[in-house]
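Example S7 (structure tokens).
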């Protein structure tokens, strides 16, 4: 599997899939994550019900939707099908946020060994994806994950404490984390 070699797929606007292994690589140190001060009241309000793996394909498709007019997506139909197949095999997981019984946010990624390879997130209600991410971190901590890969640095992952490390360092961390065993349990 490409992930085990530090490689992940992305599609361009035409749907053509390419494989990437960026240098530097973005990760979020699992143990150092802290919810922002503005998120704490949202968590305390318990506005969202969090579930895992209930509507995986729907989460991926929501992540593929354009976020604004003219926005392009890297998630092609081929990628949706590929991740849905990985989910059926037990490798891909979603964390889902519900409000009033409706899916309003979430994220998905791939789990191998003690690594979670974060792929994408979405929200239709403010803070839903942030709360889903908060619960992802709880899952990773409680199940002894040692690496959370976020691939590239951007404003979204920076808010969660993402850092960049050289690809060689990432590959060393990846190799160690793949030797460990973790379970994706809420």
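Recovered sequence:
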């Amino acid at each position: 599997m490409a992930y085990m070699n530090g490689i992940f797929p992305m599609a361009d606007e035409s749907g053509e899939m390419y494989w990437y292994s960026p240098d530097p690589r973005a990760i979020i140190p699992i143990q150092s994550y802290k919810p922002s001060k503005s998120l704490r009241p949202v968590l305390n309000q318990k506005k969202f019900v969090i579930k895992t793996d209930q509507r995986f394909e729907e989460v991926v498709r929501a992540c593929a939707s354009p976020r604004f007019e003219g926005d392009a997506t890297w998630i092609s139909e081929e990628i949706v099908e590929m991740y849905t197949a990985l989910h059926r095999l037990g490798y891909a997981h979603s964390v889902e946020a519900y409000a009033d019984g409706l899916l309003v946010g979430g994220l998905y990624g791939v789990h191998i060994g003690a690594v979670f390879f974060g792929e994408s997130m979405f929200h239709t209600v403010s803070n839903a994806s942030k709360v889903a991410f908060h619960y992802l971190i709880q899952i990773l901590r409680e199940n002894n994950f040692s690496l959370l890969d976020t691939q590239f640095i951007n404003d979204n992952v920076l808010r969660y404490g993402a850092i960049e490390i050289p690809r060689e360092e990432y590959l060393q961390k990846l190799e160690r984390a793949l030797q460990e065993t973790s379970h994706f349990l809420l």
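Notes on this example. The chain has six helices and nine strands.
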